[in-house]
C-alpha cells in the first residue's frame, strides 16, 4: 500500500492465500515466481522490486527469547537466494528484515515514531542498485504497552506481534499500523507499516528524478 501511495502500480506474491490483499497478486513461492519472471522476460514489465523474505531465521525474537526457552523450530535463511535473484533482475530493489542476525546491509532503518505511528516496529532495508539518505532516528516517547516478566507496563505504543500478554485488539492494531484493509491478526502482525514503504517509494522517485536531472 505504501508503494501504491508513493506512485507505483503494485503486483504482489505470497505463498499463502491473501484474499484481503488490495492489489493483483500471484499465489505461490515468491522465489520461484521471480525466477520465472526473469527467465520468461516478463520481469521487463517492472521497474522496482521489494522483497521481505521470512524473518524467523534471524530476527531478534527468534534468536533471543524464543531460542532461550526452546520455542519455535528450525527456519531456513532465504536472504541470500533472494538477493541473488534480485541481482539477476537488473532492477533496483529493496530487501526488508527486522532487527536481528539477518545478513543485510542496513542502508535504511525505519521506526514507527518517525511517522507518528502507534508502533515502534524497527525494520532494516538493504537498497540494491540505488541509494537514499538515512533519516535520523527519532527518540521513543515511552514503552510498548504490555506485560514484561509478569509486570504490566503502559505506553504510547502497542506490540504488533503475537497474542496475549496485553497485546492490542485487531482494531488497535489497524489504527497503530495504519492498515484498514485487513482484520486478520496474522496479516497485521506480519506486515510493514505502509508509511515505511511510502517513504522508500518516494525516496526512490526522488533519487531517480535527481539522476535524470543530472543526465
TrEMBL record:
GO terms under biological process: methylation
Keyword Transferase on entry: yes
An annotated Gene Ontology molecular function: methyltransferase activity
Superkingdom of this protein's organism: Bacteria
Keyword tags: Methyltransferase, Transferase
Name of the protein described by the UniProt record: DNA methylase
Protein's organism: Streptomyces iakyrus
Lineage: Bacteria, Bacillati, Actinomycetota, Actinomycetes, Kitasatosporales
Amino acid at each position: 500500500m505504501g508503494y501504491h501511495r508513493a506512485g507505483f502500480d503494485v503486483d504482489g506474491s505470497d505463498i499463502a492465500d491473501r484474499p484481503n490483499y488490495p492489489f493483483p497478486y500471484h499465489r505461490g513461492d515468491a522465489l520461484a515466481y521471480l525466477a520465472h519472471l526473469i527467465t520468461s522476460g516478463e520481469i521487463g514489465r517492472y521497474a522496482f522490486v521489494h522483497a521481505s523474505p521470512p524473518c524467523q531465521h534471524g530476527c531478534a525474537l527468534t534468536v533471543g527469547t524464543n531460542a532461550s526457552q526452546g520455542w519455535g523450530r528450525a527456519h531456513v535463511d532465504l536472504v541470500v537466494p533472494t538477493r541473488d535473484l534480485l541481482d539477476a533482475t537488473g532492477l533496483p530493489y529493496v530487501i526488508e528484515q527486522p532487527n536481528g542476525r539477518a545478513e543485510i546491509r542496513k542502508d535504511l532503518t525505519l521506526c514507527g515514531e518517525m511517522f507518528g505511528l502507534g508502533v515502534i516496529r524497527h525494520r532494516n532495508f538493504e537498497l540494491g542498485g540505488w541509494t537514499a539518505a538515512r533519516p535520523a532516528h527519532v527518540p521513543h516517547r515511552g514503552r510498548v504497552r504490555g506485560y514484561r516478566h509478569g509486570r504490566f507496563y503502559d505506553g504510547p505504543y502497542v506490540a504488533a506481534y503475537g497474542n496475549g500478554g496485553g497485546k492490542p485488539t485487531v482494531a488497535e492494531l489497524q489504527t497503530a499500523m495504519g492498515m484498514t484493509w485487513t482484520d486478520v491478526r496474522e496479516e497485521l502482525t506480519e506486515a510493514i507499516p505502509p508509511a515505511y514503504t511510502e517513504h522508500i517509494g518516494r525516496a526512490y522517485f526522488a533519487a531517480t528524478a535527481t539522476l535524470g536531472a543530472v543526465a
